[in-house]
Amino acid sequence: MSEEEKKKQEDIDNELHNSKKSDDNSAKSHGEILVEQICEGQEIYKRSTSSILLSSLAAGLEIGFSFLMICSVFYFFDGKVAEDSLFKIIALVYPIGFILVVLGQSILFTEQTSLLTLPVLNKKHSVGSLMRLWGLVIIGNLVGGWIIALFLSWIGPELGIFDTATINKIGEHVTDFSGLVIVSSAVLAGWLMGLLSWLITSSKDTVSRIIIIYVITSMMAFTGLHHSIIGNIEVFSGLLSSPNIHFYDYFKFQSLALLGNALGGAFFVALLKYRAFVYNV
């Protein structure tokens, strides 16, 4: 790093350090939110590999409660409501797993994408360390999703709250798009999840956080945007039972959704929010 770059980074760090703390009644400033996001991201970098894997595994499992409710509501209203309307109705219950994960502070890839990128932009960590951390979180989220998908695919029909046909319809609906559409849709979903993380930091109480999570994730569900972690459960469950979903379909969806979510969170939230602050220094 050149002397000029070092001086510029020092100015940025000083500006972040001097960001005024808002009082209890005023909204947090851009700088204050950014400081909290960077500090929170750095704390995750300090955690052990085992801790990160277990927390991300928990997130993959907990997000399965959204899938449980999606299938249950779809099955309950199937035949009573037109199928295209059903995919809109499930937006009402889609946020449940996200509320459990975010408020429970498990590590969810899409929510943490921008958060983990900010310390790299602030030159506190390397791109290599970011890729390693992303990899650990993705592995934990996916494995957790596979486990809960296997369990729910068995217990749902056994309890009579949904059947295999419901699982198949949901999985086929998620994968029934071209690769370009999936990755573009996933960029929007990643963008929204990055904003969710930013807005959660800006809020000061649990009720407002629940409202933020509900609004953003229900918007994702209503518009059918592709989310790589809940989508992992939906498509993997379909892979287990649907003759129309093959391993290639699962791999195509998962790789493109992860790519799109990462781009949406890292570029449209982390980079833009950080640069907007830096250009004012």
UniProtKB/TrEMBL annotation:
The chain crosses the membrane at residues 52-77, 89-109, 130-157, 177-199, 211-230, 250-272. It comes from the Bacteria. Its main location: membrane. It is found in: Membrane. Pfam families: Form_Nir_trans. It is a multi-pass membrane protein. Residues 1-28 are annotated as: Disordered. InterPro entries: Aquaporin-like, For/NO2_transpt. Keywords: Membrane, Transmembrane, Transmembrane helix. This is Formate/nitrite transporter family protein. The lineage of its organism: Bacteria, Pseudomonadati, Bacteroidota, Flavobacteriia, Flavobacteriales.
